[in-house]
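hi support,

uploading two proteins for the ticket. first:
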Amino acid sequence: MRLSHRLALVFSIFGAAIAGGFQYTHIRDTRAEMYSRVENMSDITINAIKALVEAQTRGGKYIELGRNFEGLVRQAGVASIVVKDSRGRRLVGRSDDSRALARQAHPGTPIRKVVDGFYDVEIPVDLGARGAGTVQLSFHTAAMDARLRQMASQGVRAGVISFLAVVLAAWMIGTWFGMSI
């Protein structure tokens, strides 16, 4: 094997490792950023719903609360909203998908470990005369998962293009150095 081919091979291997490392790091960081944004948005949403629940349950406006939940589920992309009393009985709830109400919620599960397509959050709430209770929100994760798959696909394509560019550059550098020596 000629020296120029050896140099091209060495440059290609190191270039491929570097390009692959950059792509892997980019995909990992983007995924973590997306998870963080969804978690922050769910915290904001559940705190807003908590304020709504506390304000309307003080006046015993459970029917109006149900109507407000219906609008939120339709407009905010929330899969389900459920208000439970201290005994775990459902007082008010709305959902855009019957699967969301029929399933067992898993609040506290990190979004990275969600397997059933719903990210659940829960917060304690004051129900006025009924005492303490909880609000559970479930969010669909299908759109986020699809976007993450799309980003991974784009990352692989960019990695392949980077690899081919590095191989071409390495071949040209190796050939030039090999001819010079």
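and the second one:
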Amino acid sequence: MSAETLRTALDRIFDNPNDDAAWSDVEEVVTGSDGGSDVERQLELARIRQEQRRNWPVVARLLELEVALDDDSVIMGAKHAELGRIYHEELLLPDRAMESFELARELRPDDEKVKAGIAEIEFQRANIAATLEQAFVEALDSDDNSVRVPMLMRAAEMTFRYRRDDEAARTQALDALRQAL
């Protein structure tokens, strides 16, 4: 496929991030190419446009494609670190974040941001029960909405982030969101 096909597919994704045919075209160009600089540049420009829109699922997917094309370990490490940040902070997917941070750590073992990202996820996982209890207790103890609402929102976020597979926890998080509203 041509560079024009890639440009067209990326434009279609910009207009409709759920366009499966466009994603297939992009992936076909990426996997079928030698990773030329034009392909990498187009992916990066598309990712930047999506970042401006704060369309994080698309940003992550484009960044994954960029990583697949790269052969420079320093750049790959930086991109894996950014993927880790996006999965953790923007998409609330700590398992995916940890995978990306671990890959980044292999490539950049002295990177302080990578170490900090891994440490934060490990700490939050280890302390999730105490964090949730504290948030709910503080929320329920306060009649002040400026305290109560943020604590309920934090509890819901942490539940969806670290206990999304636990049905009872999800129900509790939804109740917290309802109370916050």
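thanks. also noticed: The two ends are 50 Å apart (CA to CA).
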